[in-house]
Amino acid sequence: QVQLVESGGGLVQAGGSLRLSCAASGRTLSTYVVGWFRQAPEKEREFVAAISWSGGSTNYADSVKGRFTISRDIAKNTVYLQMNSLKPEDTAVYYCNIGVDWGQGTQVTVSS
Questions:
Q1: 12 to each of 35, 38, 86, 89, 104, how far by Cα in Å?
Q2: pLDDT 10s digit of each residue in the chain, 112 long?
């Protein structure tokens, strides 16, 4: 089992930026894909971005391409989600995921 702890959420105005962090512990991540998902009120959880821990290849939802960047720091066992040009529709709880393991989530609120 992997323990995941997200941080970095908050309240920001439209057009602003935030950087989310996901610190992982409990297992070597070398063979894993780490993903970010989000869930807005009364909506289903949706995929945002993912990164291959070993090779660093990335994948993004169409709604965030060109605005969000996922990266990892192998030494710190941490994955980041840099979010720029934020929109009110980005408001959600953001979750980090590896396999069947999820973090507790961090709230991102974008005001118009």
A1: 23, 17, 8, 12, 21
A2: 889 999 999 999 999 999 999 999 987 777 789 999 999 999 999 999 999 988 889 999 999 999 999 999 989 999 999 999 999 999 999 999 999 999 999 999 999 9
